[in-house]
Structure formats: structure tokens, C-alpha cells
């Protein structure tokens, strides 16, 4: 039997469905990420699991028990909030001990477990420090220790790393995953950061407009998106309008590969799947309008007759083509995600958390 079962969960505010009929099963020890843009319903879902928000419809079953009538403080869940919610007048040790004191444990037992919890998160020598004396990463560790010290059935994480700088965030991702794996605790993470979801989770639940778009392991969701939204939201993605005729796929009048369908289609391509090659008649032609060096890779924007493409190329130590250079765009046929172009399957707009990565060309690029 699954450890956590969410059945037909819905939360309605007036005419707005913040979460609409969500179904999810989670195994014991699994790490799940709820991923999506702002307002997609992921935090509301977490709050309903925690008991902080009452569902309009549906139920949450935890370890075989229906949580419908169970208050938040009786659900045996550890929660780490985005702002950590530490008590500013308490030291790190006192913050971590708070949950155990509410459970009336002995002072000796509390002291031992607090020492163990702080050591687990690498703060054994910081027990007397107050939140104002600690960095964001250290405060995050205190909040994590406080959530775990009570031995919860599951750990709920509401964007706990969003206030950290990029380098520290990556380090904390590794530490968080190691702690979760070592303890074998079930964890549910809310995040809008696709890289965080891909790095941490066993499965990703991609949400949009209160609904689930896709559930799957990170590799499957990234490489085989179930909907245009998923294809666009995960990774840097390019969408071109094309036409398939006589078994050949054409984009902007150029033959770019084989395709059995007939008629107008949308072609979706990850930025890292596109290769820059010499401009030929058998490739989508374009001109490099910008290139940005990002250390381990180069990011190009290439203007084509089908739109502006984003291309990612790994840094191999050689200088790539410069701005203004005419190039061809090529890819493996198996890397293109192709669907019929209909009114309901138009090219999606960029999510709010990302810079626009596709835009229609206002005019054909000069040959």
C-alpha cells in the first residue's frame, strides 16, 4: 500500500480552482517535487497535506490513516518553510529543541537529540548562536534539524532553498538529498526551480493552473514531455512552426528531416539538442545575434526565418562562431518533439520564471 495517497484533492476560492482534482500516490522513502510556475497550486497542495488548508474536495491518507479530521499538530509531519520561521530570541539549540519540549521529553533526552540533530546538519559548533548571527545556509540547516528531530513520518519542504545564493543553493541541494536518503524519510518539495526538482527528486509532479500536467522520474519528464507546457517549462526549449509533406519536414521552407505526418506541425527542441553547423540547404539557416559565455557552456541566440532560437553548446576549450556569423541548425530526428499544429496547440509562451526563449521572427532573415 502506498505511504501517502492524495485522492481527488481540490481547493476552490470562489470561482478559482487553486488545485483541481489532484491524484497522487507516494511510496515510503520517496522524494517528490511539486514543480510549476507561481500560482500553479503547488504550495496550496503542500498546505493541504500539512493540514494548514482544508480541501474543498478530496482527502489525504497518510500511512493508512485518513487525515481529514486530524489537525496539523497531530499529523506527525516535519515542515521547513521558505523563510525558515526560526524564533529570533532562541539559539540554534533552543530552536531545534522546541518541538521536543512540546512533547514533554526529559531534559537529558532533549539535549542528546539536539546535539545529534545539529551534528547531522553540520552545526555542532553553532548551537549557541542566534539566527541573526547565522548565515542563510546555517539558518536553513537549523530549520531542517528542527523539522527532523521529532522523527516525522514525512518531511514537507516549501521552497526552503530559494533565499540562498546560487553556489550555496547547489551545496544545500546535495546535503538535503544526502540527509533524506540516509534517514529514508518521505519528502515532498515545493519548488519553481526546474534544476532543483531535477537534482533532488525521485519523481516530479509538474503542475499548471491547478492541474497536473505530468508525473514521472526526472529523466523521463525532461526527455519525453507529455504536454507542450512541460516541454516548454523544463529546460531551455525552442518551438518552430513547420510543415510535413511527402514524408519530409520543412521549417521556413528548408527540408530539415523526415516525418511521416502530413500538414502543419509544431517542432519542439531542447537548446542543448541543437548543433551549429555550416549553413547548408539541408538545415535551418540563421545568423548568430548574440553569444554569452557561461563558464561550462556558451549560450547562443540565432535569428532564423522561423524565429529566434536558443542554442546551448558545451565549452570544449575552442572559440565558437562569433556574432553575425551565418550558421545552420541541425539536430537528430529523435530529439525533436513534434505535434500537429492546431488552434489549441499553439507555441506556448515562456513561463514567468524564465526569460523568453522563443519568439516569432517579425520578418524573414535575409538570405
How many domains is the backbone divided into?
A: 2
Strand order of the largest sheet: 6-7-8-3-9-10
Mean pLDDT: 88
Supply the CATH architecture of the largest domain. Answer: 3-Layer(aba) Sandwich
Shape: elongated
Structural class assignment: alpha+beta
CATH class of the largest domain: Alpha Beta
Cα distance, first to last residue? 62 Å
Please bin the fraction of helical residues. 10-25%
Which homologous superfamily in CATH is the superfamily of the largest domain?
P-loop containing nucleotide triphosphate hydrolases
Q: What percentage of the residues does DSSP assign to strands (E)?
A: 25-35%
Compressed to H and E, one letter per element, the order equals EEEHEEEHHHEHEHEEHHEEEEEEEEEE
As residue ranges, the low-confidence spans are 347-367
Number of extended strands:
20
Largest sheet: 6 strands, mixed
Total of DSSP H or I helical runs spanning 4+ residues: 8
Q: Over the alpha carbons, how many angstroms does the gyration radius reach?
A: 24 Å
* CATH fold topology of the largest domain: Rossmann fold
Characterize the structure shown.
With 367 residues, this protein is an alpha+beta fold. The chain folds into 2 domains: 4-223, Rossmann fold, CATH 3.40.50.300; 237-340, Beta Barrel (OB fold (Dihydrolipoamide Acetyltransferase, E2P)). It contains 8 helices and 20 strands. The strands form 4 sheets. Strands 6-7-8-3-9-10 form a 6-stranded mixed beta sheet, with helices on both faces. Strands 13-12-11-14-20 form a 5-stranded antiparallel beta sheet. It has a 5-stranded antiparallel beta sheet with strand order 15-19-16-17-18, with no helix packed on it. Helix 2 packs across helix 3 (107-120). The longest helix has 18 residues, at 166-183. Mean pLDDT is 88; it is low at 347-367.
